[in-house]
Specification:
The protein contains 5 helices and 4 strands, in the order βββαβαααα. By secondary structure, it is α+β, with helices and mostly antiparallel strands. It folds into 2 domains: 60 residues; 42 residues. The chain has a 4-stranded mixed β-sheet, sandwiched between helices. β1 and β2 form a beta hairpin. The longest helix is centred in the middle third of the chain and has 12 residues. The two termini are 20 Å apart.
Length: 133
């Protein structure tokens, strides 16, 4: 996985503090509201022109909280290198606001119908929870 180079921390009423970590190319690697992650992101360089702006990130979070389900305002990196994990994230990223699938349905759509427990583990480690639900 590529290292995080740029970081941003935003304060929102819906989520509290949310940290964003970006690659050198400006692709989102991870976002979280965990305290240890916020501290890590705070130590990174401020986002630059290759990343979404702070205003775009704040609008994204506010729209998400209102249920608008917007697309993330930039590119992101699929979190895990494993082929099956990427298939799972690609299935789940297509969900619309209010839509849900069981782990079994995701496993079926990812081409491994017997892997529903693996889907649960993958989603439990999802570092982009507001981008890939």
């Amino acid at each position: 996985m590529q290292p995080a180079v740029y970081g941003a921390v935003l304060k929102t009423s819906a989520f509290g503090e949310v940290g964003f970590a970006f690659t050198k190319q400006g692709h989102l690697l991870e976002l979280s509201w965990r305290g240890d992650f916020i501290d890590k992101v705070d130590g990174l360089a401020e986002v630059d022109g290759s990343c979404p702006t702070m205003a775009q990130l704040l609008k994204y979070l506010n729209d998400y909280a209102r249920g608008y389900g917007p697309q993330f305002p930039g590119e992101y990196v699929f979190p895990h290198a494993a082929e099956f994990s990427t298939k799972v994230y690609k299935v789940v990223e297509k969900l619309k606001v209010g839509q849900s699938l069981s782990y079994q349905q995701v496993a079926d759509l990812a081409g491994s119908p017997r892997a529903c427990r693996a889907v649960g583990n993958i989603m439990g480690k999802n570092p982009l929870p507001l981008v890939i639900p």
